[in-house]
Structure prediction request, 523 residues.
Amino acid sequence: MTDTTRVLFDAPGPRARLRYRILAGVGILLVLALAYAVFLRLDEKDQLTAARWDWVLTASAWNNYLIPGLWDTLRAAAISIVLAMVLALLLALARMSEIAPLRWAAGVVVEFFRAVPVLIMMLFVFWFLAHRGWFPNTLNPMIGVIIGLVMYNASVLCEVIRNGVVSLPAGQREAGLSIGLSPAQVRRSILIPQSLTAMLPTLISQIIVITKDTALGYLILYPELVTRGRQLGSSEAATLPAYVVVAVLFILINYTLSKIAEGVENRQRRRARSAGPVADADQPAVQVPITPGGSTF
Amino acid sequence: MLELIEDYQLLSAFWMTIKLAAWSAVFSLIIGTIVAIMRVSPVRIFQSLGTAYVTLLRNTPLTLIVLFASLGLWGQLGIELASRDSSTFVIDNGFRLAVLGLSVYHAAFVCEALRSGVNTIPVGQAEAARSIGLTFGQSLRNVILPQAFRGAITPLGNVLIALTKNTTVVAAIGVAETAYRMKAIAEFEPGMLMVGFAIVALGFVILTLPMGMLTSYLSTRLAVRR
Prediction:
């Protein structure tokens, strides 16, 4: 697949170049005008005074709010991705099994948790545990966040694994069967390992989704980065600056992760270790060539 | 169970979810298309602006964007999207800020979906458009975008489904939609938590399942035959 966007326009001649320059000038002017309007508004509302921003350089803001928030965000995300991957493997095995009831049960679980919003799941688990009192109250929000994230992402990743298996050449499976392996052995030792290699970039972009979704913990009082940002904003009387700093932290983390995912994807395409194409979380499990890249939520 | 639906206004909550999803879908489609056009345009500065928009918005949690719209734009900067004199000011303003937050966030994904749609078009189409002398704007309008939309049905449908589920996030700023009502059930009627969860979950399955089916029907129906 060649990139269509590159041939959408001719190499510009002198007149086109002039036109582009004028357009670029207009664009820059518009951006500057917008920036100036934002600046005026911020200034008018006293958002740009030093008192609103000087906490960024103090140790207490970082030690008491931002670093603990970052730690809680990353911790929940890390636990969730590991558990989600394990559960996704089990679900994928169940969905491809020869035992029909097991297949159906896994199918229902996957479809259900893909349809229910993560936040609804988190709210349910959090309040359920809060009413039962099985765990200390300080632990409930974290368990709620993790279970919500794991159930949703395991369902998504299960479909990615299945996608990867479906898109492998039929010869892989036939070769396994012809040397006397059982269908289950073929899946375990031939199909799924290849699918897993192919899904590595998708797995990394799913980590971005999970990191962003830990912010839903705000609604069940999990003290992650957004919650801490809100507390920080009210304690320093700097709501807006606190959100800006939190947003910058999130963007830095996720941008780095997306660059890593891109690098891994390019590397895999170059080396072509796996027989299958790179799987995508958004594509349904059907036998069509899967476009690489795509979006993550 | 019916009492629960009545007491906690679950039907109007679902109606609110649908309204949020519909308005945000319209606005995110508009913004997303503009950003996508910027990203494929020949002017370098527009390309960079489009890329910056997608990178910034896609990597920020939606919760943060929605909170920013409410506490930042409204609370700190005093930007109001409804008339102060109206009797429903608080509700309208909250709703519109929520739609704003949802739209700008999902526009980034709409843009990426459209770009993947552009990539499904064979290069020959763009070359043919250029060789008969169409300008960039003409070839975009008459050749590229119509095919891009049709090729992007599946990813666009996925964005719509994600958007519908993500409307729950605006419970964070007190818009009375489904997650907000479910929180109320959890707080005030602990015994009914299971039933409430079952109803809400079922509601979302009913909302998103037809979207998925419609998407796959349309994507085969509208696919450009090559």
